[in-house]
Specification:
Layout (H helix, E strand, L loop, with lengths): L1 E7 L8 H11 L8 E6 L4 E7 L14 E2 L6 E8 L2 H9 L13 H20 L2 E9 L4 E6 L8 E3 L7 E4 L2 H6 L9 H10 L13 E2 L4 E6 L2 E6 L3 H10 L7 H18 L7 E4 L4 H13 L5 E7 L7 H10 L3 E7 L1 H14 L8 H12 L4 E3 L4 H4 L4 H11 L8 H14 L3 H11 L5 H8 L5 H7 L10 H9 L11 H27 L4 E3 L5 H8 L17 H6 L6 H4 L10 H5 L4 H12 L6 H10 L2 H16 L4
Parallel strand pairs: 13-14, 13-16, 14-15, 16-17
Antiparallel strand pairs: 1-3, 1-9, 2-3, 4-5, 5-6, 6-7, 7-11, 8-9, 8-10, 11-12
Length: about 650
């Protein structure tokens, strides 16, 4: 795991300035790579920089980056891991396409050799991993920026740097450190954040800075800048579906899934540095730990973080799991003051506003402090195995599509009555759906995931202009258009795709990367192996039902692990690392919270009286989300 940065178009700067800018960008993310850093320039067009967190071949200087090929003049900077690099290395050694002689045991050298031997398209389809990289093809004078299938690794870029140069980096803070970007608020992204407590790619909260979409690449050559998609999850799942026998029994299906998950965990256990796993005691982390224990020759390290004062935390469940699989268990108990002391540092580490990452920051810090450099996580399981309530809600809404035949006026009366009798954000959403003319997924899903409703946002913003288009609605409408790959997938797979694109891709994975790397900890996600994701998405809905009164949560995953995980663990309710934010916002965090709210007001975009009214009525999570946004804007001097 590392950080990458670069400038294309250095002729726009005085001699040596682009190299200095690149050094500043790399220096702004030394936390991503504390082991080694370097910058390179071809003196005419391009600079590349890299900060390294050594995972493979930690001793060899030749494994450092930027990695250069003397014969071709090509250069590579790479962030992430290629889990199948050993098999690719063997393939390259026996291939007539490559004459490369390997001098390191690193996955970077394998990726670099593959790109030169097979080209971009062929190489990408062979890669199993998480990655963001920049490849300079010297012969073609072409720079290619690439991001992995699900966006596990970030890559930000801008075409609006000084003099028209193009700059890129692993973090927004690096682009800001370049001093070449104007610190302006992206107004459409501002509205997007109010809706979803995140901003969806390609936009960011800063005008002029883009986040490369998952599964996409950018080719930059001469005056041409071309963004293209190299991976489509829906199409891959549809292809998998077409090649899967229709008469498979549930037993055959679960056996195949277990084999795929086993291989995924095994691949992600490769490391030349200490490795462990987050353990909550729930089904997702337990599945990872159980398989790791089955694979490992020695006890694995597991990590649980809990509050000292919390008697209802998951630590007792995690301890039972660790005893069951004989792991070397680390239970880190923190006092409330321990956690509160870390909040300013977490806000400082936040590379892009997000209300949901504080827990990740705390858990990652505690894990790193125990001497671990790589940790496996259960992220992604809920999205592919229909674990979230949104799956059940979406199914229920589809069952009630017949309501669309009722007169709209009648539906509006029913919705408003229900909302008055049971006042809550969810009942307001139901009322909006009832009052609309659409009961399809394209309209109900974006609303179900919204944090603030459009009616509130319209009051909250001072501008009387129409609200910016809904980014989630635009994405899902495009993704589910007739004859698309997603359109032809089972209903629950469509919801999974939406979850992967929205909450997972733009909140959970972004937070996991930023807040773990703030502590120089690499997080790996076995449930996001692309073979596993497409395998599950290809299955019919009946094989992977969401939870209901008669169906336990993630029953397909549970059945796939039959005999490995006891039923009492498999059926346990999800709890997570809970913190008393509602108490803290009005108590020890009041000054930080209020500072963020003042920062929001100072933008000049917010209707303060309505904001105060909203804060008095809404939940702590919405309050904190608004404060985080204001805090970020104020801290970075955005206007």
């Amino acid at each position: 795991m590392c950080g990458i940065a670069g400038v294309f178009g250095i002729e726009n700067f005085p001699s040596g300035e682009a190299l200095s800018i690149t050094s500043k960008m790399v220096g702004a993310m030394t936390h991503r790579g504390p082991d080694f850093s370097d910058v390179w320039s071809n003196d005419t067009l391009l600079t590349l920089g890299h900060s390294r967190l050594s995972i493979f071949d930690t001793q060899s200087p030749e494994a450092n980056q930027p990695m250069r090929d003397k014969d071709s003049g090509d250069v590579l900077v790479f962030n992430g891991e290629i889990y199948n690099f050993l098999s690719l290395r063997d393939e390259l050694k026996s291939s007539d396409d490559s004459s490369h002689t390997f001098t390191t045991q690193s996955d970077t050298e394998v990726l670099f050799a593959a790109l030169r031997a097979w080209g971009l398209d062929r190489t990408l389809l062979k890669l199993d991993g998480m990655f963001a990289f920049a490849w300079w093809n010297a012969g073609a004078e072409k720079l290619t920026l690439v991001r992995d299938r699900f966006g596990i690794k970030p890559l930000y870029w801008s075409t609006e740097a000084k003099g028209g140069a193009i700059i890129f980096a692993s973090e927004v803070r690096s682009l800001l450190a370049s001093g070449t970007i104007k610190k302006r608020i992206n107004r459409e992204a501002f509205t997007d954040y109010l809706r979803y407590s995140t901003v969806h790619a390609p936009a960011t909260i800063i005008e002029g800075i883009q986040l490369l979409k998952p599964g996409c690449a950018v080719e930059i050559q001469d005056e041409s800048v071309e963004v293209f998609r190299w991976w489509n999850t829906a199409n891959a799942a549809l292809s998998k579906k077409a090649n899967t026998p229709r008469n498979l029994t549930r037993s055959q299906t679960t056996k195949a899934l277990r084999e795929t998950l086993y291989k995924s965990v095994e691949a992600r256990m490769q490391s030349d540095v200490p490795l462990g796993a987050f353990l909550s005691g729930g089904i997702d982390s337990t599945a990872i730990v159980a398989l790791m224990s089955e694979i490992s020759q020695k006890p694995i390290d597991t990590f649980t973080v809990a509050l000292k004062s919390d008697q209802l935390d998951e630590s007792s469940h995690a301890k039972k799991v660790s005893e069951l699989y004989n792991s070397n268990h680390h239970e880190v108990r923190l006092s409330s003051s321990d956690v509160l002391e870390q909040v300013p540092a977490a806000l400082e580490a936040m590379d892009h506003p997000s209300f949901d990452g504080m827990n990740t920051f705390i858990v990652s810090g505690a894990t790193h402090d125990e001497g671990i450099t790589v940790a496996l996580s259960g992220l992604g399981s809920d999205e592919i195995f229909a674990g979230y309530p949104v799956f059940e809600r979406s199914v229920n809404l589809m069952k009630h599509r017949w309501l669309a035949a009722w007169p709209r006026g009648m539906r509006k009366i029913i919705g408003s009555t229900y909302s008055r009798l049971s006042p809550s954000e969810s009942s307001r959403k139901r009322a909006e759906i009832l009052a609309s003319n659409y009961f399809d997924l394209e309209h109900t899903y974006p609303l179900s995931r919204q944090i603030l409703l459009d009616s509130d946002i319209s009051e909250l913003l001072l501008s009387r202009s129409p609200l910016a288009p809904n980014a989630v609605f635009e994405w899902i409408t495009e993704a589910l258009k007739p004859n698309s790959g997603a359109f032809n997938l089972p209903f629950l797979s469509k919801v999974s795709l939406a979850e992967i694109h929205t909450y997972l891709g733009h909140t959970l994975l972004r937070d996991a990367d930023v807040f773990s790397m703030a502590h120089s900890l690499e997080v790996r996600t076995p449930f996001l192996d692309h073979h596993l994701v497409t395998q599950v998405l290809a299955l019919e809905d009946g094989l992977k039902p969401p939870r209901s009164q008669s169906t336990p949560p993630k029953s397909l995953l549970v059945d796939s692990l039959d005999g490995l995980i006891p039923q009492e663990i498999a059926m346990r309710e999800k709890q997570g690392f809970l913190l008393p934010w509602d108490e803290w916002i009005d108590g020890p965090l009041a000054s930080i919270f209020n500072e963020g709210i003042e920062g929001l007001i100072e933008t000049g975009l917010i209707n303060e009286p309505f904001l105060r009214k909203l804060l008095a009525q809404t939940t702590w999570s919405r309050k904190w989300s608004l404060s985080v946004l204001g805090n970020y804007i104020k801290r970075h001097g955005l206007s």
